[in-house]
Amino acid sequence: MANDDLIHDSHGGMPRLLEIMRRLRDPETGCPWDIEQNFATIAPYTIEEAYEVADAIEREAWDELKGELGDLLFQSVFHAQMAEEAGLFTFDEVADTMSDKMVARHPHVFGDESRDKSAEQQTRDWESIKAAERADKAQTGVLDGVATGLPALLRALKLQKRAARVGFDWPATDNVIDKIIEEARELNEARDSLGQDEIEEEFGDLLFVMANLARHLGIDPESALRKANAKFTRRFRRIEELLATCDKTPADSDLAEMDALWNEAKREEKGAP
Q1: Spatial CA neighbour of 23 closest among 8, 41, 43
Q2: What region holds the NTP pyrophosphohydrolase MazG-like domain (predicted)?
Q3: Rounded average pLDDT per 10-residue block, the chain, 273 residues
Q4: Could you report the per-residue pLDDT of 110-143, keeping only the tens digit for each?
Q5: What is the per-residue pLDDT across 228-270, written as a single tens digit (0 to 9) for each?
Q6: Residue 100 maps to a domain
Q7: What is the CATH number of the domain that holds 30?
Q8: pTM of the complete model beyond 0.85
Q9: Where in the sequence is the domain holding 239, given as residue range(s)?
Q10: What is the pLDDT at residue 2?
Q11: Number of structural domains found in the chain
């Protein structure tokens, strides 16, 4: 029976959201679009919402963060509703599984272990616990359990971290830079003499090593690239503004003029005369 009072209760919290999701998926009275969806069709939205949360944090848009977190929460609710319909699990079981995992992975908070240890030691302990969990799932390989659906750059970083734990890693940053130079040379050679598949392979190798350099430098490559994207967007918009003062658009300009305006935008940002 529909619980309209709960649906229209502005302070209904989590029960209200779960009831709304149930109603949206109701085969007889729900939303046709929501009813047609499945795990695969919703997954891209889940990834997108996670990035929108990260974007709000990156911009320190705290007034937007509440809404973005709500959008991401709704994705979990959507997947859990579909799972319940299929007899797989419920939202409460999702929450219980997460709670059990957090309690098990924090014995220094919820158990008898001492909290008197460094963040580095806690990280090592966390990884040991996760390794034991993977072993229980018969995931015995070093790289087992690294999700294939992660963004490629993030997955590269996770794969490299796993390999590094067992000693498969360059000892110094200089070794990684040497490898980047080698991979860039191979890409250049492939461009001149090989087919598109081989060029793509060499390009992937170069990106993979760049992710490794980020790890050695203590840089989050996703965050670094987001910042580079933001800088490019900011400076290109400044080019458009400067062109507009001459009643021009980028389509009316050429590379030489826009490159000069780019350098002007760059000087403005750096406060250079």
Answers
A1: 8
A2: 37-110, 176-235
A3: 80 94 95 96 92 89 96 97 97 95 87 79 73 67 81 89 89 95 95 92 96 94 89 94 94 95 92 68
A4: 888 777 777 777 777 777 777 776 666 666 688 8
A5: 998 999 999 999 999 999 999 999 999 999 999 999 999 998 8
A6: yes
A7: 1.10.287.1080
A8: no
A9: 223-270
A10: 55
A11: 2
Q: Position 179: which residue type?
A: K
d(CA 76, CA 81): 9
- Check if the beta carbon of residue 38 is closer than 8 Å to that of residue 29: no
